Amino acid sequence: MRHLLSPLDLSTDELDKLLDLATDIAADPDKYSECCNKKKLATLFYEPSTRTRLSFEAAMLNLGGSVLGFSSADSSSAAKGESVADTIRVISCYADICAMRHPKEGAPLVASLHSSIPVINAGDGGHQHPTQTLTDLLTIRSLKGGFDNLTIGLCGDLKFGRTVHSLIESLLRYNNIKFVLISPKELRIPDYIRESIINAGNHEFVEMERLEDAMPELDILYMTRVQKERFFSEEEYLRMKGYYILDNAKMELAKKDMIVLHPLPRVNEISVEVDEDERACYFKQAQFGVYVRMALIMTLLEVDVPC
Length: 307
Description:
Blueprint: H1 12-27, E1 40-45, H2 51-62, E2 66-70, H3 84-91, E3 97-102, H4 107-114, E4 119-124, H5 130-144, E5 151-155, H6 162-171, E6 178-182, H7 191-200, E7 204-208, H8 211-214, E8 220-223, H9 234-241, H10 248-251, E9 259-261, H11 282-300
Parallel strand pairs: 1-2, 1-3, 3-4, 5-6, 5-8, 6-7, 8-9
């Protein structure tokens, strides 16, 4: 039995196989419609979510399985003081696989230590978000043909953005990737992520504050929202909220084949006028999230791929 707590839990070979499976699912989803018949997914979401929770549910339903769970801590026995360890012990009696989102870093790891079913980390605080990273990687590979020799701009909340942290750590395993880290000083990438890039040895990175300065050289722009739930004061959040807004004027500075990604939800960091630009790929990215989670569920449950 395996869990997925970090994108690095998968080797590059395993990742390639997973993405190949997700690509085949995208090409012919009906072929996979009965793969998880009579299997149950438990979604344990202690923190609000729309895309991640619903994409997990859609993934399992598309595979012919069923879903149970809760969408907030208030609607679970956590409100009564039940521990994560006890919750997962009970859920293991009801379901075959579990996806957990929790505001505390390391909570899915704790769950995995007490679980008799595979546990998928669906986001833990500001730490990791491995299935969003798998979604990002599938999107990049599908639209750019691979991961090598890319210049990737990551913009916005790089301090608390778990999607950014997971994506950088995954991409460090590929060749000749340049990271352009675009953020205000207050939201710069954590030191441990910066040191990971430096220690990888074969990756260039630059930090800057102006999005306009970065646009011309980017192959991919990965926008993030400033996360209100990670701030301790309303005043600090409001000061940072409008720091970066991608609009058509900035898009005119970019390469014709640059793509824009965003883990969503967005607030105001991408103007709706950009949605009409063919380089805006964030809704396509959300669709890829269903396919990659279908592939992950099949892989962790060791379900046979249909002929």
